[in-house]
C-alpha cells in the first residue's frame, strides 16, 4: 500500500478531480454529485495528499465544519488516453439518468 508524502491543491471540475494535469475520481464524488455541482456552480479547489513517485491515487482531505472532523477519501486515476471526451460525457449522462430513474422509482414505491 502506498502512502502520501506531499501536499497539493486539486480542482473539482465537471470532468473529474484534476491534479497535475491528471483526472481522478472516487465513489464519494459521484454519489455526492461533485462534478455536476462544478458544472452548475463552478470549479472548486481542494487539498490533496499524494505520493510523488506514484500518482495512481490521491488522498482528498474533507473537513466537516459542523463536527470539526477531518476525513480522507481516496481518489483513483482515470486513464484519459483510453476514454474519449464523448464517452466520458455519455458516462456522466448515463449516471444522471440512472439516478433520476432510481428517484422516480422510489417516489412511486413510497406512494403505493
UniProtKB/TrEMBL annotation:
Record-given protein name: Transposase-like Mu C-terminal domain-containing protein
Domain of life assignment: Bacteria
Stretches assigned to the Transposase-like Mu C-terminal domain: 9-62
InterPro entries: Transposase-like_Mu_C
Pfam families: Mu-transpos_C
Species of origin: Paenibacillus thalictri
